[in-house]
Structures are given as C-alpha cells and as structure tokens.
Amino acid sequence: xxxxxxxxxxxxxxxxxxCTREKARIKELFRxxxxxxxxxxxxxxxxxxxxxxxxxxxxxxxxxxRLKLENEKLRRKLEDASPVEKSLxxxxxxxxxxxxxxxxxxxxxVNFLMxxxxxxxxAQRHMIFTDDVKHALVKGQLFIFGGSSDDRKIARLDGCxxxxxxxxxxxxxxxxxxxxxxNSGSLALICFGYFDNSCETFDGTKAxxxxxxxxxxxxxxxxxxxxxxATVGCFNAKHKKTETLSSIGWSTLPDFPMRINKHSIVGLxxxxxxxxxxxxxxxxxxxxxxxxxxxxxxxxELATSASRGSSFYSGRSIYYxxxxxxxxxDLNAKEELEKVELIGEPPKYSSYPVxxxxxxxxxx
Length: 364
Known about the structure:
- InterPro entries: Gal_Oxase/kelch_b-propeller (IPR011043), Kelch-typ_b-propeller (IPR015915).
- By secondary structure, this protein is an alpha+beta fold.
- It contains 2 helices and 25 strands.
- The chain folds into 2 domains: 64 residues; 231 residues, 6 Propeller (Neuraminidase), CATH 2.120.10.80.
- Helix content is 15%, strand content 38%.
- The N terminus is likely disordered.
C-alpha cells in the first residue's frame, strides 16, 4: 500500500454532506450551460469554429431540463438534511489541506477510500478566492494564478495562508487557462484562455509575456514532453492539435487521435508523456494515452471515467484527483503502466483542485 501526504485546496462547502454532491452537480450544469451559450454567441459573431448550432441548442435544452430536476432534488434534500458531526471514519489515511478559500487552509485528515462524515458548514463568504485558479510551484513555493475573484491575481502560500502579491498577470486567466512548473521549478508557465493563445512566465516576482502558441488550447492542459512544455486539444475550437514550447517558440507535434479537452497531462522521466481522462463531445473519458517517440498510443484505462482533475507524480505512481474520484496510476521501474486503482473520492466535487506535497502536521 503506497502512502503519500498531499495538500489540496478545495472550495465551496454545503451545509451537510448529503447536500454537497447535488449542489455541485447543479453548479456544474450551470457552468456547462453558460459555456455552451458563450460558445454559440461567439460563433454567431464570426468565430472560426466548426460546431453545429442545432447540436448546441439541443444540449442547452437538455441541460435546462436537468437543471430543473436537480433543483427539485436539492430542495427536497435540503429540507431533510440535518447537521453532521466533525468525526471521520478512516481506513487508509492521507492528508488533504482544505481551504475555506479565505486564504487560510484548514487541516482535515481523511482517508483515500471513504470519509463517512465531513466538516459542517464552512464560511461561504470566502469561497471565491480559489475558485477557478490554476497553480504551480516556483522555487519550492506554491502560487495560484487568476480565477473567478480576479483573473489577473497572483497569490503565494505563506505558511498556512495565501497572500496576494502586488505582481499581476499580463492577461486574464480563468477557468480555461493552464499553469505548469518549468525550468526545474524556477519558473511557472501560465497560458491560454477561451479564445486566447498567449502565454507568460512567472519567476516568483514578476510575470513576463513569452511566445504565443499557434492554436488556442482552452482546457488543453500543460505537461512535459521531452523536457519541454506541451499542450493538447482545446475546449472551444474542438481541434486535435498538439504543440510543444522550446526556447525559440511553439512547434507542432502529432495530432491527438480525437478532439479532447479537460484532460490531465503528466510528463515521465523517460521523456514520454501520459494523457488521461478528459472529455470528448462532453463525455468523460477513461483512456490512458502515451505520447512516446512522437507517436500516440492508448496503453490502458482509468478505473472510472474522469475529467477536470489535477495530478501528482511521485515514487512511480501518479495520483489523480478528478472532479469526482481519486485514482492511483502505478508504473513499473521502466515507467510502463502496471495497474490503476480507484482509491477514494474527494471531500467534495471540485474542478482542477490545487494539489501539493506536504507533511501530516501542516497547518494542524
């Protein structure tokens, strides 16, 4: 049994555990509906994307029906919900760091398999600060970028508290942006937006504009391939393009076999790159793909379909915190796929959680 200590910044808690999932699903339906409406409006204004309007309208209609049903379910559950205790029943222990998004993380010890009860209601007024941020380590310190509260903010985790810096991003970076630690951890690369192919680097003090990609890669991920940043696919443009960034700019890699977005990318020590989870035509995926020697091959499956997650590679295991599942991808000494295990569920539904290594007594 592999054990690892994590820190994870999560947001938005409901008043009782029985309500959390329903509320999160409704929030996600609203988000998806809004994404489709934005996409349709911008296409109508002349954006060059190949999407069928009747399909968008059909999905919007379907989401409207689902929203009404989910709202009714949540209303009934809220009426029946009662407060829960702060105790937890643990079997395989790990450590998450749960933020109330008011910048001060709250220590919560839970297990990777099942936390039968969770904390009671947390302060809703703080939930915006870490909503939709992207994160990266720079010189050993954790930084978060952009997000719903301020899409140009930069904040650093100092001890048990996020402190917003005077430094600012050069472009708006929100839900569709990506961030990655590069140059042996000395820089963060922050890229993309809904119709934005721009990138910038951050050295812990200042954000500097760098090369723009040929394509936009909204929700296309950032990972490492052959020791260089790489990105795959796009949410709104629906393309298969793969690009990599060198010291002279972005260049093309082989297209991914399908139009994918909201996946996770992890670079391996053998200079190959794994891509897993994500969405194709709105459907969550299970495939684990490898780009090696400039060729894409499917090498396995996740334990369950997953999307909108963050990953952590340590000790030949990739820990994947998806929106609704936690999975471990085990590799052998040659970094070949060995097995995949579903090891639990996050304390709540959360897209792209902030994930970092820490110690059991962190912020306790």
